[in-house]
Amino acid sequence: GGLSQGPKMAQSPEAAAATRQFGDSVGGELSGGDDTFYLEQVTLDDDDDDAYQYETVELDDDDVAGEGEEDLDQALRTLKLKKGMAVEDPPPPPERPEVHLRAEVVDDFVRNFLRKMGLHGTLDMFQREWYTLQQEGKLEDEDIGTVPDVYLRNQHLRDEVKAMKEKMEKMEQIAQRARSTWDKFRKERDFHKMHHKRVVQEKNKLITDLKRLKKHYEDYEPTLAAMRKKYEAAMKEKMMMKLERDRLKGKVAALEHQVQQLEAIRPASEAEPTRTPKPRAQGATLPKQPRPNPNIGLKEEPRMVETFHPQTTNKGHDAGVAAVAHHPTKPIIATASDDCTWKLWTVPGGDLVMSGDGHTDWLSSVEFHPHGSHLATGSGDATVKLWDFRTASCSATLADHTQAVWDVAWHDLGDFVVSASMDHTAKLWDAVVGKCRATFRGHVDSINSVCFQPFSENICTGSGDKTVSLWDCRTALCIQTFYGHMNACSSVAFSSRGDRVASTDADGVVKLWDVRKVSELCQVYAGPHPANSCAFDRTGSLLAVASDDGTIKVFNVDTAASIALGEADETAEAHMNDLRGHEEPVQSICFEPVSNRYLVSGSSDATVKVWT
Known about the structure:
Layout: H1 13-30, H2 61-65, H3 72-83, H4 106-117, H5 120-136, H6 149-265, E1 310-314, E2 321-326, E3 332-337, E4 341-346, E5 352-357, E6 363-368, E7 374-379, E8 384-388, E9 393-398, E10 405-410, E11 416-421, E12 425-430, E13 435-441, E14 447-452, E15 458-463, E16 467-472, E17 477-483, E18 489-494, E19 500-505, E20 509-514, E21 519-525, E22 531-536, E23 542-547, E24 551-556, H7 557-565, E25 575-580, E26 586-591, E27 599-603, E28 608-611
Antiparallel strand pairs: 1-28, 2-3, 3-4, 4-5, 6-7, 7-8, 8-9, 10-11, 11-12, 12-13, 14-15, 15-16, 16-17, 18-19, 19-20, 20-21, 22-23, 23-24, 24-25, 26-27, 27-28
Helix pairs in contact: 4-5
């Protein structure tokens, strides 16, 4: 078992000779004796082409497991065990010779030491002198004896110390890296701790806000329930009114049918005489020539604004005050608010005279009629409303704009109103018939402010496209455009003489333009916060600027112009005072037009202040 004859294969001469030698050695070893095991010897030639059929012999698992590991002796032992033959134990392995360390002699010790330290020149010198002494016989036995154990021990200890030092240095490097890693982890831990604390604080704050909002919502629950009941009652009333209207329509139709039948049978002689229609109301017309301006020859000293302080404060609106205006002759001011209402107040008492609501969105502007009989308001609902004080009602609603209306202004005769809108246009309205007479197109962004030149038919507009333009209302054409602002213009205002225009922008820059020379006169800086509005006093020398930082900055424009032309002293300063008192941005300001005694301002903090 274990030997097999496989398919016949071609062999080289060397392989055939090796096979024959193997057969001879195996046959010779296993021949002789009574219990001799004979193995068949077969010689295969290279050109042998017999028809012998080879068959495969199955191998045991034990034989397969040891295949590749057994040598020839082991294979023979295995075959003998298979046949039950006696097998001798393998001879024991030869004993290994013992190695004895001989003590190192002095010269070898010195050589090894110098070689280890790299002292090759010293080593050569030592060997020459040593061999010279040895040849001359000057060396005694005690000189060339072995090295004492203590030196070898010291050398061994030094080697161990050196190895330990190297190992210690490596450990120190590892410890340093571990220390740096630990420091990094500690910093990350502290960072995550702080982040966790911040998250916990934010969570607690959110929980507090949620509780407050929930409580706030619970406070509104009764109001919402009451409003819901009112809404249901109003819907029921509306349905009842619809039913009543349908019933009355039916009655009216029946009565008209009866009237037609009666008229058909009535004689022609009894026919009602023909009525002549009433002529339709004609609209107002713009004057062809400008009127003389009574303020040109006005000689009056400006007020000492350095002493101005808030005299009264009114908080009568539920939202921010967007615009203020003063009555032309009476101590009454009008305010327009984001709460969709306008109100009239006495000055300085602050008593409420009248209020109105009718706009469906926030109010942006308010302006008195030159005679004080009407009020114009502009709103975010894209309409302009005219209010009549005699009837205490809205006399006209002007609704040709497509977007929010930012500003309104009256003509000095009171027959026309001009409005500026976010739809990039300004419109001239006939206040008599309530129709649009002209549309001013040319700006490429929202028109934020508009005003009439005193006692003329020209208007001035300030736009988000950073330009200020003059327009002729009779032709609806642009007369002149002023360039120079680097941000959106928020407000424009004419002086009482009509020769200067002031404009403000979102950078806090205020520019003064000379209308006669069509050029920039000077520039003052009221920043860095946006300048929301500006207004001249009666003399035209003082300019108040409403700032987004809650202050009112007052400038002397005559001094500013002199500084710009180089005609003023080095100590001259245009900035006169900053009026502080509002808690939020100031949106609108105006001077008292008759005596120039005080200044009125409206702010986003829902208050109106009178400064005197």
